[in-house]
């Protein structure tokens, strides 16, 4: 017997525990197949790894955390405006409403977007149902924090 999917809002606060990031704003987008993470300063490293800065604050883009992660793959992605770009993809765990699952993220600038993370269908399927009339169903909106700071 499978578990019942949890209802979440179109905008939620999520954690990226493997990278020590808590309470980052994510938009659930069932129209997008893949998920995206707001980053800049992408540098390909030896050993099939990539270094990037995750943007933690929409208003202060200098508030970042540098991450080094294995490259899952690279591919061409067509953005919502029709442009096609080569993107790196990485994987990490995301915690939403007490449920932690591995999600594949494309690394892209979301500078003009409200949320630092976009969660697409592949990240949501099986575990979550999105109520588009709700936001912050799982917990109240909080400022981004470093999980390491709490230890």
Topology (SSEs and partners):
Elements: E1 6-9, E2 11-16, E3 21-28, E4 35-45, E5 49-55, E6 64-70, E7 73-78, E8 84-96, E9 99-108, E10 117-119, H1 121-124, E11 128-131, E12 145-146
Parallel strand pairs: 1-11, 3-10, 4-9
Antiparallel strand pairs: 2-3, 3-12, 4-5, 4-10, 5-6, 7-8, 8-9
Tell me what the structure shows.
The chain has 151 residues and is an all-beta fold. The protein has one helix at residues 121-124; strands at residues 6-9, 11-16, 21-28, 35-45, 49-55, 64-70, 73-78, 84-96, 99-108, 117-119, 128-131, 145-146.
Beginning-to-end CA distance, first to last residue: 37 Å
CA-based gyration radius: 15 Å
Per DSSP, what share of the residues sits in E-state strands of 2 or more residues? over 45%
Q: Would you tell me the structural class of the helices and strands?
A: mainly beta
Largest sheet: 10 strands, mixed
Number of strands: 12
Report the average pLDDT across residues.
88
The stretches of 5 or more residues where confidence is low (pLDDT under 50) are: none
Give the CATH level 1 class: Mainly Beta
Classify the fold: give the CATH topology: Cathepsin D, subunit A, domain 1
What spatial form do the alpha-carbon principal axes imply?
globular
CATH fourth-tier homologous superfamily: Acid Proteases
Count up the helices.
Answer: 1
């Amino acid at each position: 017997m499978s578990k019942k999917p949890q209802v979440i809002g179109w905008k939620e606060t999520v954690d990226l525990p493997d990278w020590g990031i808590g309470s980052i704003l994510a938009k659930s987008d069932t129209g997008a197949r893949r998920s995206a993470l707001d980053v800049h300063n992408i540098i390909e490293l030896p050993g099939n790894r990539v270094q990037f800065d995750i943007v933690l604050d929409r208003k202060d883009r200098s508030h970042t955390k540098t991450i080094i992660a294995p490259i899952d793959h690279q591919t061409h992605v067509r953005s919502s405006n029709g442009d096609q770009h080569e993107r790196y993809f990485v994987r990490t765990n995301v915690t939403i409403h007490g449920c932690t699952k591995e999600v594949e993220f494309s690394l892209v600038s979301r500078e003009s977007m409200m949320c630092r993370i976009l969660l697409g269908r592949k990240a949501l399927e099986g575990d979550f149902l999105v109520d588009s009339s709700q936001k912050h169903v799982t917990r109240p909106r909080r400022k981004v924090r470093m999980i390491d700071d709490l230890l």
